[in-house]
Each structure stands twice: as structure tokens, then as C-alpha cells.
Amino acid sequence: MSAASGAPQSVAACADATCSGKMTAREVVRASFARSKAVRAGADGLNAILWSNEDEALDEAREVGRRIVDGGVRLDLAGVPIAVKDNIATLTLPTSCGSRILEGYVSPYEATVVTRLRRAGGVIVGKTNCDEFAMGSSTENSAFGPTRNPLDPSRVPGGSSGGSAAAVAAGVVPIALGSETGGSVRQPAAFCGIVGVKPTYGRVSRYGLVAFASSLDQVGVFGRTVDDAAIALEVIAGRDSLDSTSSDIPTAAYRNAVDEPLKGVVIGRPKEYFPEHLDPRIRQLCDRAFDTMRERGATIRDVSLPHTDLAIPVYYIIAPAEASSNLARFDGVRYGLRIDGDGLRGMYEATRSQGFGPEVTRRILLGTYVLSAGYYDAYYTKAQEVRGQITEDFRAVFASGVDLLFTPTTPTTAFPLGAKADPYEMYLSDIFTATANLAGIPAMSVPIGRIAGLPVGGQLLASHFDEHRMFSAAYALERALGQEAHR
Amino acid sequence: MSVTVDDVRHIAALARLGLPPDRIPSLVAELNRILEHMDALGAVPSRPDQRVTGVSGGGMPLREDVGPQIPLARTRDELAPVMRDGFFIVPRLASHEDSPGEPS
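ok -> C-alpha cells follow
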């Protein structure tokens, strides 16, 4: 929320205000809708929010208010307005995945992450735009039109979770959910100047997240601050009996990392993420961040992750392969759109060809090709081998005494809408982020400065399930950089 | 490796995508441009010991490149544990964490 709306700006302040009676949850939610209208977050402006229902959200906020009064308890997200990416199932708002094939589809069940947010007092105020089925890096691939970056509407907000990032950056909500397959939370967080977290594979339930590439997908969180993101992740993390890939490794209180010193922490600087052709201004901002962490007691060590340059080829074999299988279910029989054709097969083909957009079609074809007879070993098997080597690179670095890695989140700042027509050029937007998904490790992007008014993100990466240490460095960096991170 | 017009037609059929004929040449060009970059993997020494596989290690059995049988070999009624009025009866999932296991 903006200061002008009168509502608290952080998650903790919002929960404090509603739990102490200074504001009602309805007032906070109403302020969120007012802000959404003021910044034109809908289709007539940023196009960040696809679906919302103010009356339902206000009813839910009233219910939260009752729980606070009747229960006498402090809810972590009491009355906090939250936006949810359109590929995460909600009960009353549509879940379209930014696709025509699911236009108007309303899920009969709710994602576990949404249940947990609501149970903690959060109120879902809208579903956000995204690249169709989360396939893209700019949110230009949505069937409902592109989302615009609130900091410069001629530019993209990043993707695929661009609508969620834009909603947070525009002050409509303090936190939002996105999903990550190759950087779809961290990259838009970097482009919009906010915090974005991709947890360890298995840290957060994916029950109710529409599957794109199941060995890579994770639900992630956006926040305007590290603390907001920490609280959101804390609420949604943990084992879920409805997702067999979720882990029962205990979660930590990530917000307790706020005061942990960096003294003694070893932070790796992987040389492959700082190539000669990297924008010198991005390099300079990363160097400043390294200096800041060093001044606070961290040790910076040069390291190497030698298979980094293979991450994009590996990712764009494995992800489309899994997508070609996962998206086979959208055939006009069970979900959404149906276009009549010549017989059953004709109906399948007409529905899928008219329901899917160009990028999804391209990836389904690519995925089918790399899994087909004669090409399976050359592409898919090989990609799985190299994925193992990428994972081993990280394991070896962390085993050598490095606690965290720090890199740029993206090789560029937000680019203009329509600037990347070549698919592979767009894929390269994920070059610094896809490795964490392939290895299953946690990573997050925090603002570290601006270039010509456009935000730059710095990426922290940790070993599996070590989110707590990642947050401690993020808190320290945020505190040390202060407003410098946003100018 | 590169794909041809026939390859794209074949994989489109496997993927049940009805492609307009005038779209196929541009897709061939786009896919080949992407596949060019994938060829970098061929230069990496093979390390089967580091291959990421499922828990069983053996992976899924491969099948012929043909689509699944249409129509279904067994009717829906035979596949469903319980049906009523033409609908499958399934456990309620909407509020799963609040009321586990309650049937609808």
C-alpha cells in the first residue's frame, strides 16, 4: 500500500494494525483496491491483475476481523492483501494460467499455499497476469495482453510472474505469490526493484500449482522488503501431505535472521556470472554489494561453477520435455476451451492449436521432439547428465566452505516491450537464474541499485534448505544499502 | 541436429497440435535456431553416473512414437471406483487442510 492510502506499508505493520484494532482488515483491503484503481493495475493500465472481486475480498476481510476479535490471537498476515499468480488454484477467482485454453476456468479446489495464506489471515485480492503457463521471461506471452513495468510502462516487468511483481512494485499489495521454473520470480523481482524468493525444491507445497515442468517448478514469494518476503515464505513453507515432493525437513523462522551478523560468513563470487561482456554498471553495483558485505564481516571468495554456460540449453530441453507431457491434459475434454473438429482427434487438435499461444506451442513441439525416438538420448538423456554436473558444481562449492553465492540476478535491466522477438534471445534472460532451478537450491533477488532509473537485482544462492542463511545476508544487504538500493 | 517440415508435422501429430500449413516453415526455422544452441551439450563428456533420474534409477519404460489409443479401451464407468448420474464421485478437496478426508 502507498503511504497516501493511509494503510500500513509492510506486512508486519499491517498485521499489527489490524490485530491491535488501529485499522480493520476491511479498511486495509479497501485501501488495496483503491490503490489498484489509482495506479490502473487492471487491463486498462499495467494489466498486472487479471481477476479480482472486491466484494468477496471485503467479506473475507470481515471474517478475518471476526477471527481476530473472537480468537484473541495475532495472525501473521491479519488483513494483509495478497495477489496470487494466475497459475495457482483459488476457489472463487478464475485460474487461467494466462491462457485462452483455460479462460474462465475456476478450480474446484484451492492450492495449499493459498489455504495457508488465508489461514494466517491473508486476503486474496486478485489473480495476476503471467506468461502463458509460466512460459516466458517478460509477461508478453499472456493471452490477456502484456503486463507493463510500473517503473517504466514502456518496459516489461520480467516474467513469467510479471503481474505479481508489478502489483507489489506498484504498491497494490505488500506481498504476492509467483512460481519459478527457471527464474520467473527472481527475474521480475529484479526488473521491478523488489524482493523475490525461490525456495528449495520441496520447501513449499505445489498442490494446486498448475504443472509446467514438475522437476523444476516451485512456488515463490515477492515482497517489497526482505522482511515481507520472509514472513510470506514462513507461512507457506513446510510439508504438505497432498504434495509428495514436499519435504518434512523442519522450516525455520526466517524473520529471525534479521539481526544475524555476516561475520564469518563466506560468500562466493562465481566467475561465470561475471563474464567480460557483463554490463559494467551491473558489475559495479555487484562490486558495491560485495564491499558492503565484506565491511560487515563476510569473507568474499572467488569460485567457479564451470557448467554454468550450459544451463540454458539444459533447461530448454528438460523444461519443454516435461511441459509437453504436463500440458497434454489440456485437450478440450476436461478443462476450459473446446473447439469442434473432425472427430475426437480433430477436436483435440483444433482446441490445442487455437487454445495455446505461439510460445507454448513452440515449447510443446520442442519437448515432444527431444523425447521422440532417435533424439531422446542425444537431447534429453544428455541434458539430464549435464544437469547432474551443474548440481555437482554447486555441491562442490558449498562443500568447500562457501556458505552463500552472490551474483547479478539478470544480465540486463528491464527491456522495452517487444524488444526480444527471437525466442532464444528471450531465453537468455534466464541465464543467471535457471541454474538454481536445475540444482533445486534456494535463491533470491534483492534490489542493489539502479541504472538510468531502472532497478538492478543481486542474487543470493544457498545450499539446499539453507534459506535461513540466505535471508540473513539479504537482511544485512538491505539494511546496509538502505535507499541506495533504490536509486 | 535440425528438424525438417516432415519432422514438425510428425511431432505436431504426436503432440495433438493442429498446425496451419503456413505456420510450419516458420516453426521449422525457429526450432532449428533453438536446437543449434542445444548442440553445445554434445561437446560435454558423458557422465552417466551424474544423470538426474527418478528414485527407481531406471526411469520410465519407453514406448513407440504413436499417440494413445482413441477412443478409450475401457469406458469411464469401468475406470471409476464410484459414479453417480454420469459423474465421478471423488473425495472433497476444496478445504483439505481443514477437514481431512471427508467425502463430499
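Chain A touches chain B through 60 residues (CB under 8 Å).
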